[in-house]
Amino acid sequence: MPTYLLTIAYHGTAFHGWQQQAGFRTVQQELVDAFAAIDCPGVHVEGAGRTDAGVHALGQAAHVVIDREFAPERLLLALNTHLPDDVAVQRVRRAPEGFHARFHSRGKRYAYRCLCSPVRPAIGRDLFHWIRRPVDLAAMRAAAQCLRGRHDFASFASNPGYPRKRGTVRALHHVHLLPRASGFDFVVQGGGFLYNMVRNLVGSLLEVGYGNRPPEWFADVLAARDRRRAGPTAPPQGLFLLAVLYARDLSPAGDEPGRELPTSGEVDT
Question: For the whole model, what pTM was predicted?
Fold first, then answer.
C-alpha cells in the first residue's frame, strides 16, 4: 500500500490543537474526515508532532498509508476540496515504504512573532503576541547566544502530563531574533523540541528585553535545569511551525550527513 507525505498549513485559532480529541475540533480530525470524503475511510494521519490549541503551522508534516494509488497532485486537490478554509494541504509526495513522519524527521523550524505597540491591534490579533512596550532586542540577542548547541533544556520545558522517554537534552542549530516592522520574530531550528519549549524560551527572553533581567541571567537559567527559575510561558497565538526537516529522499539515512530539506519555504534569516 502506498505511503504519502503531506505538508499542511493551518490557522490554529479555532482548533484544539493537532491531536484528535473526542468532543473537540482538531486538525488531525479534519484530515481524517477529508480522507473519508474521498472514499478512504479509516485512514490514520500520523503527524510529525503535536501543536497546541491556538498554534499555527505553515509546514506541518504527516504521513498516511492508504490502499489506493493516487497521483500526488490529484490527492492534493481532492483533499483540499473537502478541507475547511483554515486548513490546506500544501504538498503531497510519495514516500518510501516504512516512512514515518515523526521518526524519520531530522528536525523542525519554528517562528514566534511579536508585535510591539502601545496601541491594541485591530486586525490579526490571533497571529502574534501583542507586547505593549518596547523591548531591547540587542540584549535579547546577547542572552540567546547560549542556546546554540546541545544542552539540557529542562528549565524551558513544561510538564507534558506523561513520562518523557528521551529526557530533556536537545540540540538547537539556528537561533535568530529578526527585527520586523513594529516587532520581531524569534526563529529557531533544532533536532527536537520539548513541550512548550519555544514559548518558554520567548517568555524568558522577554524578561531580558523588558530590562527585568540582565542578559547573563538567561545562561544561568539554562544551566539551572529548573523550570521555576525561568520566565513565564508566552501565549500560543504567536507560534508557527514553519517546517519539518527530512533527508532529500525521505529515508532515515539518505543524503549527506547534516543535510536537511524543509517541507515548506525557507525563512529569511
Answer: 0.91
